[in-house]
Batch of 4 targets.
Target 1
Amino acid sequence: MDDKPEDHPGGGDVAEIVPAEVRTRLEHGTHSVLVDTRALEEVRRRFDDEQASALGRYLASAQSHNTLRAYRTDWCAFTAWCLAEGRRSLPADPVDVAVYLAAAADTVGRDDPARWALSPSTLERKAAAIAAVHGAHGLASPTRADVVRMTLRGIRRQRRARPNRKRPVLLHTLEALLAERPAPGHPTGAARRRDALLLLAGFAGALRRSELAALTFDDIAVDTDATTGEPLLVVGLAATKTDQEARHAQQVALPRGRRSTTCPVCAFAEWADAVRAHRDGGAPGLRAFLEADPQAGADHLAAAPPAHRCHTYTGTDLADGTARPLFPPIDRHGRLAPRTISGRAVADLVKRYAERAGLDPRAFSGHSLRSGFATQAALGGAADREIMRQGRWTNPRTVHGYIRTANPLEDNAVTRLGL
């Protein structure tokens, strides 16, 4: 699944909730919850700095950035609890860990006391973080004890509930979101172009929000559909949730759309033009480019859809090996940042456009684009293997869930009852 690591019960930055004494201990301790820096110091005594640094670098890369960030947050929360309760966090007693998880399970939401603050999966991740820290220090994990495993099992049994799944963005929903983009011209035209590509790529490519956020221009290649001769985009994915070591060189294809307003190739060309203007002329160059947009002086809501421009599109020189972000943040003045947006920003963008379209933003998330692809494809009659190929799913049961959502009567014997 795609979801971001959940925050600790209090939310906010770790520095705001962890007592100063705990922060001081952490700062003087290991800098990674998975790498024992004291052991690395022993390595440095035996090998030269370059060899030791190489070892530390690869050990630190054993887990994804999101996993490490979540584990650090979880470890800080557990350490703070141990300090408040007079318990020892390292090595931790299994009973203390079980009590901590039980107490965390009973925590209710700050804004909604009727809802639990932490899900069973979040509590299991907290246990995994505690196990990871112990393993990094060569200690036996307290989470392997029966008291911890039984506590987690009891939490799962008591919390049996239907998952709170977000709504998929279907094709008509996607068109509604696209219709709510800001006006062309300066300063909103840059966000208008970027967001069109983000929404279309996320939907047609069945991309996770983390995958969208990580894309660069170097990852996009313009190719040709061998059957139709039409242009298409080939998106190369680096590390993904299910391929964190990037062993399989996964790719997704984004074909030309029937209309220019829903064509990923046209959207890419439009956005690449704006980014090139910014690269060559900075903020003033981008402003001049956007102000020259033919639709800038017209009522873009009433204007006829523009014609396709992808027929002769051959690519952009922005794919120059510099890993230029495909989706950078854009401020209210229309200025592009040199970094990439975050996965959270992708989810916020989907929610924001849903709200503008008169939909409940709480019903949508960054995953709505990916689930929308699978559901819409199932509605269109796509086979399991076709959906799994584009979405890189390996478990058919996941796809079957989307198909049941799209058409609960598909291959269902109830249609043969003669009612």
Target 2
Amino acid sequence: MSTARTALETEEHQALRAAVAALGKRYGRDYMTTVIREGKHTDELWAEAAKLGYLGVNLPEEYGGGGGGMAELSIVLEELGAAGSPLLMMIVSPAICGTVIARFGTEEQKQKWLPGLADGSLTMAFGITEPDAGSNSHRITTTARRDGDDWVLTGRKVFVSGVDIADATLIVGRTEDARSGKLKPCLFIVPREAPGFGRNQIDMELHAPEKQFELVLDDVRLPADALVGDEDAGLLQLFAGLNPERIMTAAFGIGMGRFALGRAVEYARTRQVWKDPIGAHQAIAHPLATAHIDLELSRLMMQKAARLYDEGDDIGAGEAANMAKYAAGEACVKAVDQAVHTLGGNGLTREYGLASLITASRVARIAPVSREMILNYVSHQSLGLPKSY
């Protein structure tokens, strides 16, 4: 498929895109489905991507990263996804956790975590969602209280990806403001084997190498340096991680949509029922063309969000990142649906590798925030309409 994306990208970005696409092609969808079927993890692809410098391309050079930003990291995830082998933990480990530590962590925290996150030898999970809070971060009940020089965390988290393979989880908790008595968000690094830190795997219909977990924090005692950044800047730090999460989720959705569309276009070019390939018929061709347009438009907004974020415009990036995530989620679901429909019965076979994406594509719509909450954000923040909640 031809694409207009290169006109807006630097030569370095084009080269990165081509190199990652070549890596993804060497693994592809067959690798991913085999890993899922055997209950394994994407260790080989993760290690090779790390060795080539792709996992830490957004992290500072002085800590072993590539010195780039979300523009570069989103290219990596998109191209791996377009090859059929996306790495979901890229959204969590280098994008959220790596960014938060790089921006707000102490020097000791940066030295301890960033080189490993960059070279893939360390991974981190991210825990924010709670059973009774959903998208309302103000209802988070996981609390952290001081006990001498230590912190003690108590609470629950759900839908936390990759805790079983992560060396630590960046947990969003709330501490009490001594002046006002109100609870404010704070971020804590919780090692996987910390006493009182329990996990239960959630039985998902979604088939992916990365498993989902419920976490229970039962008086988890942490040293003072487990707190990331300033105790009084929790919201700033939190949203510094959530904007990259939305940008990378957009990349995840765009990559998956491109993979599905590529399979459908290839099929439509060669599948012949009457005298011409089915792709010659507008009932097949036009919906595929529409899906391509929607994916390209989504990428434009993702590129805008990444650029604003990398330039330090957190407010502007917040709006663009939410819009990009919304647009990519919609485009991904529509592309997958149309791809399956184009292949007919073959779209539901394991051989063509599209049926499993019917469930997987919903992730880009649902996580990390629903499309309805994004519409709320745009209604209030962009349009200035009153809140209903």
Target 3
Amino acid sequence: MDTCVSNPLRQCSPDELRRRTSAKWRVHPADVLPMWIAEMDVPLAAPVAEALHEAVAAGDTGYAMGDAYVEALDGFAGRHWGWRVRPERAAIVPDVMAGVVEVLKLITSPGDAVVVNSPVYPPFYQFVAHMGRRVVEAPLTAEGRLDMDTLAAAFRTGGDGGPGANGGEDGGRVAAYLLCSPHNPTGTVHTAQELAAVTELAAGSGVRVVADEIHAPLVLPGARHIPYLTVPGTERAFSVLSASKAWNLAGLKAAMTVAGAESSGELARMPEEVSHGPSHLGVIGHVAALRHGDAWLEALLAGLDENRRLLADLLKEHLPEVGYRSHEGTFLAWLDCRALGLGDDPAAAFLERGRVALIPGPAFGTGGAGHARLNLATSPENLEEAVRRMASAV
């Protein structure tokens, strides 16, 4: 495979992107610049495209089976994080949120509380509430870091929850903590010390930790991802990972749930039919990415690093009132627009007046009002145009 790959964010023309039929390019009218949903403006990594073309040419479009995914994930985790993913502690699932739901079904009961760190990925609220569990918020600090005192209080007492919580009623124990690592939308990459403190708190409170690590490969220069299950004391925890975000494979369904050393028995009780959900082509694509996509990922991360520095410069020039803390992971930027006087949902003004689509901050729960999430996994030219449009809306 090639070891030299050019920046994937510079390879798709506007016309090519507009021909795409996925959500990013079809939800809004053609005059809107889409910077919202977590799809990247990149071509497929060559190893992924080759693997999929070979499968289609061979008619290899049946049902997924075998251990190829966990073996590929084990290889990637070993190269990048020094972590071994053992097949006997892993189970394939359709996608990360489906994996989270299935794990929560194993370790919680209806009425139990699940703690989340707001502002956080909106489906955390939606999926947990739809399961009949309560959402309890433990907000991040003003700097976007985990607040151990707030987390400890949430573990002890529960609370009123946020969007999607079951009326804030105290219907059961605090049973689980859904950790977003790296964190969406702030881009925070949790440190080893923070994760160790989380583990100690959870153990002392009898709370089970489930880590959503979908953005784990997307950690930018200056930070390092610590897989949660490598932290001492996480034997009763779970992690859910996927190649989908790092290689732009959301339409190719597949993910992996991994159990701590003392949780494999619980994972073995996951219904067998859950393993029917991943797409065979999804598994093929994800395996190719994890095995052969390192060079492409390295080029992507360099491009994202350039874009986060460009975004800081553009905001300083055109929208100096907007607060932006350079994110450490993901390809998402969390923008504090409260000083612009656009109300709780500045994304609405950016869309209506500037014709640029961002994700509204209030959807992320407490701490989201007055904010918006911007996807900067695009060309520098698109990023420049987006900020100019946002400035025109003020």
Target 4
Amino acid sequence: MAAMKRPPLNRRLAEFGTTIFAEMSALAVSTGSVNLGQGFPDTDGPDRIAEAAVRAIRDGRGNQYPPGPGVPELRTAVTDHQRERYGLAYDPDTEVLVTAGATEAIAAALLGLVEPGDEVIALEPYYDSYAACVAMAGGTRVPVTLRPRGGRFVLDLDELRDAVTDRTRLILLNTPHNPTGTVLTREELAAIAALAVERDLLVVTDEVYEHIVFDDSEHIPIATFPGMRERTVTISSAGKTFSFTGWKVGWATGAQGLVTAVRTAKQYLTYVSAGPFQYAIAEALRLPDAYFDGFRADLQRKRDLLADGLRAAGFQVYQPQGTYFITTDVTPFGEKDAYAFCRALPERCGVVAIPNSVFYDDPDAGRSQVRFTFCKKNDVLQEAASRLRRLTRTGPTAASSDMPGTPRDREAD
């Protein structure tokens, strides 16, 4: 049989290989490790919301194709949520689109808004699907790196401004930011908004961790700034806020023209999904403030529990202001390569984590950074912290850092 003249995989996706999560999850199983790698809770969300999904199924709501833009109940709940929490008014019929999680919303937004040759600025380290979706749209990814300073990861606004060219189409934001836990400040967001207006740029903003902010941090949608409502697609989802990540219910809001563009692409992806779950999430968005406050407080306690354990084990810890991830640095252990460190960690002490280098265009920028998730039960976090203390009694990993093909991250949202 004659060999194919061209590889099967589309060349735009050639750089995206096997996911590191598959590798690390397999290591967790084979070594009996505590898995603090992939970011999903190990407990389900509120019983009343699960029952709402069961009720919808039994009542025959959503068992067949729901409307393409999403069920009216959820679209209305989303607009009510945006108005009551942020003062953003949207038309539920023309300015809201329900998607198969935030990941599909991101994909549809980039496919609908970006043309071949357009440049897309993304803050790195970045959520895994960003790079692949920019590539599928034929765009050019332009990273602007968040760098550690003063215990947090900071955006250099001058670097961002310098990254904008005549070919820049949009800025892809993520705040609260995965994996660093940074929450962009009002001043940072105001500067980004002013730049977008000045240079006539669109903004696609991933706000899936909007309800997971800690201490004195505040989540502020960039769409609330002057001139930004008409040029911003705001994306969020139910998975992180309500701990039902498998339901895959997300949404995008924005001015009618922008949402129409996103919907045009989305209708040829899944078209519709998660019918009964849409009704349940409509109820979830109307939960009282006590739910959101309690959820956030519980995660803050978990953050502090794991952060204290990581410090006690010898890690340098960047205290996150939001999300449910902690970024650490392994140089205190005499380590230089977090990828090799994470490969060896299950055998060394029975814990799985993720090297941040997979979130960067330039792996050297995050070479010594490791991400842990804390959206787990307290006893799981305590066990992980106990195991990690063994690292203070062992030397640097012998795993080679000269490994071919560091796999790309893949984490569904």
